[in-house]
Design brief:
Layout (H helix, E strand, L loop, with lengths): L6 E9 L4 E3 H11 L5 H10 L4 E3 L13 H27 L8 E4 L11 H8 L6 E4 L7 H14 L4 E8 L11 H9 L2 E10 L5 E9 L7 E6 L2 E6 L3 H17 L11 E4 L4 H10 L8 H10 L6 H12 L7 E8 L3 E8 L3
Parallel strand pairs: 4-5, 4-6, 11-12
Antiparallel strand pairs: 1-7, 2-3, 6-7, 8-13, 9-10, 12-13
Helix pairs in contact: 1-2, 3-4, 7-8, 9-10
């Protein structure tokens, strides 16, 4: 396949709810939402989270937290469709790709339940063809954005142009009946937003090289959602950073070594920022310069963890910083429930 017909990330775009909160508003709102918690602990948690500002569909005090699962899910479907449309339209405009050129649409959203899937509403609203192939991916959680972009690269090798869309309204999953530290931590970390990308043949953007997956054994309990009568409840085991510190490097190196690559050799590292501690663990594991994961840290700081939509914010940060040079490589990595590791490699060409 020549470079002109090779699949590229032609564009990336994001969209966010209008309501945003900073560190002070988050701290004050969480103190009211979790009166049983030590106020000093909440203040320290928010300050050290790595998140400076987030966009939320509801206020940080959890107005939606007291509503029923049905009410929350109606809110999800209403807000999610509007945000997804906004991000998708921006991505199509930036790519210069007409909607009728899209062959496949992949929706990775996981923080709400919609049957039929969200893509059935997006397709006609965007003007996609009636025969567009639809691939909704939900259960891959935070890794789904990276998984979808890798799949889009593979589809591009078959001549397909793919629109990837992710919209996550994490604030809607907050439950007022959960006083666990996990729920408190997630309230400080997660935000709401949408991302989209167009992957296909073109003249600009990084060219797809390969993608790969790794499933960590005996790790299902570390991350995910508890699905119950009150809706989705976040699962984030406190041992997750410790587990990743032990298992992540062997897994990543195992994917890279057969392809003749080393983690530190990538000029662009697009790592899903699950949290400050995970980024610190990766920096420590590979003895990276502080600047190496700057795009991940900045995306976390200005948007929070957006689950599957986060990688689009990371890409957008990096692509906006400076013009990449031909020959530079990018590595996209997402970690999600399973635990699963999703990675894809991209190269900038002339």
């Amino acid at each position: 396949m020549n470079v002109r017909s090779a699949p590229r990330i032609l564009s990336v775009a994001t969209a966010f709810p209008p309501h945003s909160v900073d560190i002070a508003a988050t701290t004050e709102g969480m103190r009211r939402l979790f009166p049983q918690e030590d106020p000093a602990f909440i203040a320290q948690l928010v300050e050290r989270s790595g998140v400076r500002r987030r966009h939320l569909t509801c206020d940080v005090e959890g107005t939606l937290a007291r509503r029923s699962f049905d009410e929350k899910n109606r809110q999800y479907q209403e807000h999610a469709q509007a945000l997804a449309l906004e991000a998708a339209r921006r991505a199509l405009d930036r790519a210069g790709v007409a909607p009728e050129r899209i062959d496949v649409v992949i929706d990775t959203s996981c923080t709400g339940i919609a049957i039929p899937a969200l893509d059935t509403a997006l397709a006609p609203a965007l003007g996609l063809r009636a025969d567009v192939r639809r691939l909704p991916i939900t259960e891959s959680g935070c890794a789904a954005g990276a998984l979808a972009l890798g799949l889009a690269g593979e589809l591009g090798q078959l001549g397909k142009t793919t629109l990837v869309v992710a919209v996550e309204l994490c604030s809607i999953t907050l439950r007022d009946d959960d006083a666990s530290r996990t729920n408190v931590v997630s309230c400080a970390l997660f935000g709401d937003g949408a991302g989209a990308a167009v992957v296909g043949a073109g003249e600009r953007g990084p060219v797809f090289q390969w993608n790969a997956s790794h499933l960590f054994p005996r790790s299902r309990h570390l991350m995910g959602f508890d699905v119950g009568a009150r809706g989705l409840g976040i699962v984030l085991d406190r041992e997750l950073p410790v587990f990743l510190l032990r298992a992540l490097k062997p897994a990543l190196d195992g994917l890279l070594a057969p392809r003749g690559r080393e983690f530190r050799a990538f000029e662009h590292l697009w790592i899903h920022p699950g949290g400050r501690r995970i980024l610190e663990a990766i920096t420590e594991l590979y003895d990276l310069d502080e600047d190496a994961l700057w795009a991940s840290r900045e995306a976390l700081a200005v948007h929070g963890n957006l689950s599957s939509a986060t990688v689009f914010g990371v890409l957008e940060q990096d692509l906006a910083r400076r013009a990449p040079r031909a020959g530079e490589h990018g590595l996209l990595v997402g970690i999600g429930p399973g635990l699963s590791l999703e990675a894809s490699a991209w190269r900038y060409e002339d």
